[in-house]
Amino acid sequence: MSTDSPLIIALDYPSLDAALCMADRLDPARCRLKVGKELFTRSGPDVLEALHGRGFEVFLDLKFHDIPNTVAGAVHAAAEQGVWMVNVHAGGGRRMMEAARERLERHGLGTRLIAVTVLTSMTADDLAEVGVGVSPAAQVERLATLARDSGMHGVVCSAQESARLRELCGDDFLKVTPGIRPAFAQVGDQQRIMTPGDAMAAGSTHLVVGRPITQAEEPMEALAAIEAELN
Ligand SMILES: O=c1ccn([C@@H]2O[C@H](COP(=O)(O)O)[C@@H](O)[C@H]2O)c(=O)[nH]1
């Protein structure tokens, strides 16, 4: 089932059972689901089949980063399993991103392919430590432009960068933003955060929300509060 909702719920759980327990409380008309490294490493492709069987569109968030041939093969494998969206690291460079895009095109696969710019958990100091001497905003701009020019459908960035990327890359370029923190939620390890309402106003096309819902005492109430903020 396809949905108009911008919400993507991150199923960061240590087992398939725990993830499906949450999925069974959610409605594919109201959100998409994200499967990341922990859950996929535990469950393998079974989780994709289980979520697709329940009618959900799935973002497989494995952030591939390797040589072009390897990444193209991984993206191809993900797309053949029917995922709605898959991602790579923009830091893998133009040839890597182009190889992934070309592989999907060659096989007529319509999976959205997006690139991670700068993780929302990172600050300017973190970037400096890995040899990047510019602000997160400047680095996101640089990598988003490269991702657009390499044929990506969009990027993962923080909502703090969405407005600038809307100017630079347009409305249709996807801005998938984790680091979403409603006023009631703990910040945790995220650094570049924004509330759901502000993120949509800034130009985010999709909001990734994990712990504010999955770790809430009443997850369905947390989801409803976020939806209310968006309407
Ligand atoms: O830059 C990034 C890229 C990916 N993520 C992922 O999004 C969710 C966020 O979960 P919260 O619990 O809402 O913090 C998580 O799965 C991350 O792996 C990100 O946070 N930042």
List the helices and strands and how they pair.
Blueprint: E1 7-10, H1 16-23, E2 32-35, H2 37-43, H3 46-53, E3 58-64, H4 68-80, E4 85-89, H5 94-106, E5 112-116, H6 124-129, H7 136-149, E6 154-156, H8 162-169, E7 174-177, H9 196-202, E8 206-209, H10 211-214, H11 219-230
Helix pairs in contact: 1-3, 4-5, 7-8
Bound molecules: ligand LLZGTKA7.
Residues 10, 12, 36, 116, 119-120, 156, 178-179, 188, 190, 208-212 line the site of the ligand O=c1ccn([C@@H]2O[C@H](COP(=O)(O)O)[C@@H](O)[C@H]2O)c(=O)[nH]1.
Features:
single chain, 231 residues, 8 strands, globular, binds the ligand O=c1ccn([C@@H]2O[C@H](COP(=O)(O)O)[C@@H](O)[C@H]2O)c(=O)[nH]1, lyase, decarboxylase, pyrimidine biosynthesis, OMPdecase_bac, Orotidine 5'-phosphate decarboxylase
